[in-house]
Amino acid sequence: MEKKQFDLNDIVEMKKPHPCGTNAWKVIRMGMDIRIKCTGCNHSVLIPRREFERKLKKVLQKGEKEE
User: What is the spatial distance between Cα 40 and Cα 20, in angstroms, rounded to a whole number?
Assistant: First the structure.
């Protein structure tokens, strides 16, 4: 199975939608755990990288690189 490529500030779609109705999340922190923020209600969630990669459906929009 192909490993999905994602980076900081990317907008991603998860397999299950957030209770607010939005299914788009922004990756705001990367490391052993990934912190994502809902683009609808700005609620943030910290989940382990392995679980995030399993629940990730696709990358909707690539984020801009900060220098």
Answer: 7
CA separation for the pair 42, 31 (Å, rounded): 20
Give the pLDDT score at 67: 55
CA distance 39 to 21: 10
Which one-letter DSSP state was computed for residue 62?
P
What ranges do the domains of the chain cover? 11-61
**C-alpha closest to that of 6 among 40, 53, 38:** 53
**pLDDT tens digit sequence for 28-39:** 999 999 999 999
Cα 15 to the center of its chain, rounded Å: 11
